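Known limitations

Structure tokens in this collection are predictions and should be treated as such. Users comparing against experimental data should check residue numbering before alignment. To illustrate the layout, the record for Kinase is reproduced below. The input appears on top and the generated tokens appear beneath it.
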Amino acid sequence: MAFAHQVGGHAATILASPLSSSTLIKPASARELAFYSQLGPALDDGHFIGEWTPAFYGTLRLEGKVGAEGGIDKLDTAGDEAGEVEPEMIVLENLTYRFVHPNVLDIKLGTQLFDEDASDEKKERMRKAAEATTSAQTGVRLTGFQVWDAATQAYVTTAKPFGKSLEVEELALGIARFFYPPLSPQSRAEQATSSSSSPASVPRALPLDLLLPVLRTLTRRLDSLVALWSTLPLRMRGGSLLIVVEGDPAALEAALLRAAAPNSEEDDDGESVSTTDEEGNAKEHTLLPFEMRLIDFAHTRGLLAGEERPDEGVLLGLRTTKKLIDELVTQLEEKQRDGDE
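Generated tokens:
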């Protein structure tokens, strides 16, 4: 079954895990499997996997077919048609698991989106794609996102075309559309194609006294990731930064209060408490206010001979993301001082 909160990547390539709702499965490319099993565990004294990426739980072989492009055709019978293989899946942490209504943002990182070993045709196509969007100049492209609207009790989804249509100077409105939708007017591309008779739905914003602590903590975490990334011997092509924020105001407030309390996930004896109830759902005391991890390592590798660290394209993207959130914080703090919420 397709994963309900996938907002980026190829459609339906991430599946809800048959093992637990706390895990996901996806087709395992050789390079991504090597990253999670070999390259990643050697980074940051062994703390990189699970701290800055989803946790990795191994592989799983399913009965079914994976098409030549990696899409899963079916999962009930094995087949050997041309271009198809039985799928070996990697089992990863579900980063939306510890949320009631997760707001999810996928930010594609890097100024170069193709592998060095890609065909000349693909290199040229991906180079043009980067230059036609915000990737080439800023190292980021807003791939897609979903925002929970507490007023309608439904998600408002913004798909890939929005991020691809943004000009560099419009990235701020894209970030605002995810974190604080009322501040986000239509982009120029939307103004040119939209009809006044069908205005876009604008989700109700999270209260500023809850959102601002999340944004300030995200910027501090981005500072730490920038410092770490500057030291890593990696090249990541087409990877993303995934940001998840609790979209339910009551759940967000409770999660922030729990996060501020010491030993919030330990019992009275200091022993770790299970995060999962008998039905496989995250226990209330383990729910999070936000999460931020790097994802999508199908085109990540170690440095080749003569290459120097860091990966400047990804580093630019991380710094751009921090700058955009910093600017949004300044804007929202002014709004809060004016009492205009």
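For this record: Residues 66-86, 267-272 have pLDDT under 50 and may be disordered. The chain has two domains: 15-93, 102-337. Please report discrepancies through the issue tracker.
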